[in-house]
Amino acid sequence: MSRQREGAVDFAALQRRMDEAELVLGGELSAEDRRRILGERARAVAAVRNEARAAGVEVLAFRVGGERYAVEVKAVFVALDARGLTPLPATPPWVLGAIVARTRVVPVLDLRALLGLEGGGMTDLAKIIVVEHEGELFGLAAEDVEGKLEVPPEGLARPSEGPFAWVAPDRLALLDLSRVGTSAARGA
Amino acid sequence: MGRGLLEQIWPIFSAEAREQLAAISDGVMDLEDDPRSGALDLVRRTAHSLKGSAGSLGLEDLETLAHAMEGSLSRYDPAEGLSRAAVQGTLEAVHAIEEALARGDAGGEARVPRLPELLAALGGKQPALAAASAPAAPPAAPSPAAAPPPARPSPTVALVGQLEEACASLVTPLEPAARKAAADGAGDVARRLVELAGPEAPLCVRIAQAFAELGEGGPEGARAAARIAGDLVDLRQALEGPGVGADGTPTPPDSSIPAPAPTEIPNPDPDPDPATLAEHSTETSTPAETAAVAQVPSEKSIRVLASAMDSIARQLELLSLAESRHARRAREVREAGAVLRAVLRDLERAGLVLRLGGAEQLGALAPALGRLRGVAGDLSRIGRDGQRDADAQRLTGTVLREDLRAMRMVPAGVALEPLRRAVRDLAGRLGKEVDLVLSGAEVRLDRRVVDELRGPLLHLVRNSVDHGLETPDVRRAAGKPPRGRLQVRVEPRGTRVGVTVEDDGAGLDIAAVRTAAVQKGLITAEAAARLPDDEAARLVFEAGLSTASSVTEISGRGIGLDVVHDTVVRLQGTVGIAFRPGRWTRFDLDVPLTLAAAASLLFRFGREVAALPADTVERVLLLTDGDLGTVAGRASVKVGGAQIPYAPLASLLGSAAAPGERSRLRPALVVAAGGQRVALGVEELLGQQDLVVNALGTRLASVPHLSGAAVLDDGQVIGVLAAPELVRRAQPAAAQAGAAGPVRVIVADDSLTTRAAMKALLEIAGYAVLPAADGEEALQLLGTPGAQLVVSDVQMPGLDGLGLTRRIKADPRLRATPVVLVTSLDAPEDRAAGLEAGADGYLVKREVERGKLLELVRQLLPSRP
Lengths: 188, 865
Description:
The complex is a heterodimer.
Chain A: H1 3-6, H2 11-25, H3 31-50, E1 57-64, E2 67-72, E3 76-81, E4 95-101, E5 104-109, H4 111-115, E6 127-133, E7 136-142, E8 144-151, E9 164-167, E10 173-175, H5 183-186
Chain B: H1 3-33, H2 39-56, H3 60-74, H4 84-105, H5 115-122, H6 154-170, H7 176-196, H8 201-216, H9 218-240, H10 274-283, H11 287-292, H12 306-356, H13 365-407, E1 409-411, H14 413-430, E2 434-439, E3 444-446, H15 447-468, H16 472-477, E4 484-493, E5 496-503, H17 510-519, H18 525-530, H19 533-537, H20 561-570, E6 574-580, E7 584-592, E8 598-605, E9 608-613, E10 617-623, E11 628-631, E12 634-639, E13 642-648, H21 649-652, E14 666-673, E15 676-681, E16 684-691, E17 706-711, E18 717-721, H22 723-730, E19 744-748, H23 752-764, E20 768-772, H24 775-783, E21 789-792, H25 801-810, E22 819-823, H26 828-837, E23 841-844, H27 845-849, H28 852-860
Parallel strand pairs in B: 2-4, 9-18, 13-15, 19-20, 19-21, 21-22, 22-23
Antiparallel strand pairs in B: 1-3, 4-5, 5-7, 6-7, 8-9, 8-16, 10-14, 11-12, 12-13, 14-15, 17-18
């Protein structure tokens, strides 16, 4: 149907003819039905998207001892290079030393020793994440800092052991700072 | 009150409220003890003031509760004294308010649950706050000081309200014409207020001017708007008292007059004539002022946030780093000047030689050299001046640090007062009667020392009430007065401070302490029996020791006497215990007055560097081999006529020994703490610096030999050791916890027969044997309960002997443990492999039978007493 010949196009008629043609070609649903169903589905999906998404938790993720861990962003004081880390004399294996972070002197702990992970020594550790808990600062040594992540609250499991608040489906574990490095947690 | 404004003011209010609550609870307890005490006025005024500030922030619950406290106190009759119920009611109200403050501090709402019950306990009614139409009279009070004047009249308040509305509307976007009109109107209102407001007139004039500026618009107008908002709040408070919020919420009936100045009594004048009121306002101080004045009028002081002081301290440390750098630069400049002069001399000499050799065209050289000489002189001068500046700067820095140190000093009372409530609560709960005597509250200590002492003092005091002091019946039966006496004394001792906690209770049950220690495996029964009483008493400071048959709930944080000990040691202090059975127990803490920068000695020991505060090092010795002797099998050195124990610091701390030959002359630091001394061998002294020791937090509380860490003047971090712990470890009686008892040897072998045979062999020789089936198990046993030596087969499944040896030698904590490999492999390569892995001994199984194992073991183990 040529526009030039007939002026305004009758789209409704066009549509009907296409529908009929489709039916003939072998759909079980008329195109109209199909459009209706697709439209309903589209609305349903849109509705899901429009749901207020429950806020996720903002964490700083890092890698140490071959595993991925995280701490809440609001507990992070600063993350810095491990270059300034100085060992302290005769400390247990879970204390790597101390470092100056923003003019404060903070102890740095080795998560690998505290969690029984592989590895030791300072060669792999590139970064120190200094956290604050109950007014005290201390640092956690990491091989690599991934960065800030927002973890959705669905699917978080509470692990039975270890100083973790939760473990996400992708095995990222959030540290419960009140149990990291404390004498109770170390079984001392 | 707007959320933002409340958040800003909250920390100040919270801090002040806590002080007020402390004053109220102390005062009330004073009144209970001594009904005639003058504390009543102060307590009532404080409650009134708290009510006012709470009201001004719109914190209704707190205001109501404070009001009820005030009311209950105003019904007080000195003849009758304060009933226990009234005291209890007040203390509970104080506690509830503290909890509400804590909620507010955490960002939540400062509401008080169970408000009606608390109010009922105080005998107060909930005043009709919401719609106050007529000023209601307060509960009848016997003393005139309590009768507040009626509410201020509405005209001025209404005008202020109009101004506030105008201000609110003017901060919204308006057409210039509309803005000018509104501002002019507000200005008129303000000017009318000038006449009515009496002493607040200047404030109103300023407000009128500000409105005029607002009317003009522009940046000036914006600034004026900000000023107006603040001024209006002040104005309303000044005219009305602290009971009304800036958004015009109605006045509570009787909270209109501020807490009066100590000597004045406001006139109860029902006449709402503005003129008379203007008179009144000149007599009493404005609420804003009274609220800001410290509770103790005798000392002029200001409140400072502790974090601000910490920040100043850190900046001072950075300043001192800069000072040192400055001094170094100045020195370098001077040296450059000297070098330049030497070069000049060479040049001049060369020029002379050339001239003698006939060169004539040296004309330009002489003036150039002359100029260079000038430059050299300048350099030297600049260097000298620079050094003088650096010295002056260092002096200023020292004065600054001294000032800061003084600022950080707080009276010990800060840590002592909270003890009253704790003793009262606990004694009440346990049915004991206790007189708490506090002395030395005025002694000033570094705030950080006081902060660290709070926990230990609280625990010691609770310990005394719980375990030391007996119930009245038991005491009477023992011929003691029924009321127990608990004394906490703070006394200055030169640059240190002594804190004593003494009770006249039952003393220590020393037999129970010995038994508990043996049960815990800290010490063998024989050793326990051999210990004299005063040393056995010190066992209470070991972790995990409890002689109480039932564990009483002392504190949520699980602080024990061991943590008290560790905390004090971390402060470079000591704690001692003395007792008389059935009569008294005394804990004696000795701590430094201040934690500020102290001269410290830096040294190298083993492969590490560390520092010790100079005032813990009595002297430095240079020892040759001949100076070392032995006393009772232990190394010692003669110092000033007395033999004191000697130990290389590296081995004392279990860290790696220094590589290479030891030189003939070895430095040793004579360190003293708690009346005992030890000579610690180090490799080299590195110098002296003023260091500020930073505590490393509770997680490192279990590393007692570390007092903290400090930053050197070149920016490097260094560990600071705790002298008391070093001295303790070196003492002969420090065949103590952990090292006491028979020597533990781990025997690792996958063959049951071999294990049993070696176990029997070693046990006959007097060693305690821990068997392990493979390397992993051996490692686990090394962790807990630990051992002094490892005998291991080489061929084992999983982790074999070589792997085990390597792991042990790689771990700084276990490195010092000797490892003996016992194997059937005899080839020299196997032996070499074993020694390469780090084994301290390598035996073939045949040799074991010939007694070689025992010989080797005895050789490898450090000498035991």
